Amino acid sequence: MALRLAADFDLRKDVLPGLRAAAGARGGGAGILENNYESLRVLNVERNGNIIYTYKDDKGNVFFGLFDCHTRQNEHLYTFEKDLQVVSCSVNRERTLLAASLVQSTKEGRRNELQPGSKCLTLLVEIHPVNNVKVLKAVDSYIWVQFLHPHVESNPLPENHLLLISEEKYIEQFHIQVIQEDGNGVVIKNSGHLPRERVAEDFVWAQWDTSEQRLYYVELKKSRSILKCIQFYADENFNLMFEAPLDIALSDSGFNLVNFGCTDLQDQEKFSEHPTLCVFTNHTGSLCVCYSPKLDSWEQITYSVFYFHKGHSKTFTAALGSADSRVTKGITFLNLGNNEVVDMLPHGPLQSLSGSLILDWCSGRLYRADLNRSYLLEFLWDARLDWEKMAVLHCVLSCRQDTRFLEAKIIQWISENISACHSFDLIQEFIIASSYWSIYPETGNMDKLLPYSSVLTWNTEIPGITLVTEEIALPLMRVHSFKGYWEKLHSNLEYVKYSEPHSHYSNSVVRRQWHSLISEEKTGKRRSMAYVRNILDNAIKVISKLEARHLEPRLTPLFQEEDNHQRLLVGLMVSELKDHLLRHLRGVEKKRIEQMVLDYISKQLDLICQILEASWRKHNLHPWIFHFNRRASAAEFAVFHIMTRILEATHSLFLPLPPGFHTLHTVLGVRCLPLHNLLHYIDNGVLLLTETAVTRLMKDLDNTEKSEKLKFSIIVRLPPLIGQKICRLWDHPMSSNIISRNHVKRLLQDYKKQPRSSVIDKSSYSVEFLPLNYFTGILTDIESSSRALNAFEGHDNVDAKFVEEAALKHTTVLLGL
């Protein structure tokens, strides 16, 4: 299974043994519990993680206990000496007050133990020490109770706040002041009159968020469902935070509570007869509502997710396939939170709690849920369809634990399936998706600012699944001052309102600016040095961050040269991406955005380095590969192929490459490819001739006919500035010829013809060849006048005499002399 559940708490293991031992110590024996084994059940999970449970003895007395999730110890809270059924229970933060609602026992022959005319009794009990019991409600409708657990420093709190949720569709808040008596004893102040107020009414659905102390509920107004949220604070204040229309069908006759504990009153057989509705949030300001209507057919399931912080909803319809499908209890929406756990989900009702916790009411087990990484990796290897590969790849990358291990496994999979995908490029998708997931938790709406996939739109049909995306109305905020989560949600909503339709970052601007800089370099022109220095400083920051990620020595010979072209590309990307995020993330600090940009770009470079390192390690190559004077092995062919695929993947997206990548790729290309293929790769831009690579080639190769042909073919394809440098490294008539041609071109480009004497001094020339002598004389005059004006400086002793000698040698070669 892709989902794994690890038990954090088990009622039968963590509570039952202690109760048996306590019963034995009192002389009652274990049988006092064995006869009422099934009465032991969980009632509630409080904000601090403590679990409240109940059980009965053989006399029917009701016991309340608490399991401390931190000390993993059990504590007896209270005993109600009547045979009644518990509906709901909650304990305040200090464990001094217990609220409980109880109803008449279902056993036949029992007389009414409650007050005459009442069905449900709601009590408030002093339990530190056990003292007074106050009746809060004695009514014919069921009542659920929940203490507020605010995050405050003071301990104990002078006032407690208790929510009462009625089956009559209203919610009240009681304010309970307490005072200390007789040392540590706590009693209720003015217990005869407890202030209370109506919080909500006429609702058909409500959910309690115990972690954030929020109440979500749905009202029906003119047959429209309106979602509302109330935020409770440490004092007695609370605010209605927002209202949002929900395009779902809820019945006015229905009544459903989420996360208000569990009671036997809920008929589990009717679990799938009601719509399923859950609200999920996280710290980035997201607000999601998950909804599944009543199941009318077991042939397919429909569910919707309303992404209010993004302004759209997605409705999925999935075919179940076989008639014996395990989906017989409806849909359960789970919050997986951060991210590792049973091979099968429990059959009973589940409650999704904060921190990736899931409570199975029937078994009394509390699970921590995560994606099963081992299963997902196995699924990745077995996937045959492209949409399966993409879906599982993103699931694996969303597991943010031990990312280095997961990325290594994905790279291994990619290297074995490099050509097995037709709808998208595996390397592209891995780089884009992994980079996105690496900074996804930083802020909301990241999916609208950065690409999360290399595929802009998925047009291939997925069998058995349909998806409909619709725009939805944004929540209407009811307050004007925001902090914490609400500030981020408000920022997300403002972004949706005023953002540009297509605000995804792309490297199109970087592409234009980079080509402009390279063009300026070729023509000898360059914009202000301060601008270029700033760009290169950006690249230094990225590469420093990249080196900090990789502490072990590298196998691949990268980062051994400046590679200014790639550094310019990296620096430009930093500048453009920073401007892009600053433009759209107005509520985020500039420093934080700069850090996000450095993390994002260094992550992309790091992924490319990881792919290369993995390929290098797999084929057992060594850094001495950085030479031309050896034949290529099969392993080197394989690495060259991977590097070519990396280049293809990054080229269309215009992503930067690690400095030294092109040099290494060219070295392998020279060793792996026949000359005509090599030149074809160079002419089509697959292999980029770097100064480092060509310098190494000139030094490593001898002057055999084959090597000369290769060298000359390379030199004539070099940019002029690099070509001039490289020619001086090759002591050969060909290079002398090229140097001479460049020298003559440079001298004559501004030459203006002047009258010259027709008499030539033959004594100054070594050869009596009038055209050459005349031309050499012109060059000598230009050089002399240029030096006189300080406008010309010699280049490595290249002058008219050098040109004359080169011309004669070239002619001699051509004539076969």
Automatic annotation (TrEMBL):
Q: Which protein, by its recorded name, is this?
A: Gamma-secretase activating protein
Give the lineage.
Eukaryota, Metazoa, Chordata, Craniata, Vertebrata
Q: Which domain of life is it from?
A: Eukaryota
**Domain Gamma-secretase-activating protein C-terminal, which positions?**
605-712
What Pfam families does the annotation carry? GSAP-16
Question: Which InterPro entries does the record cross-reference, listed alphabetically?
Answer: GSAP_C_dom, GSAP_fam
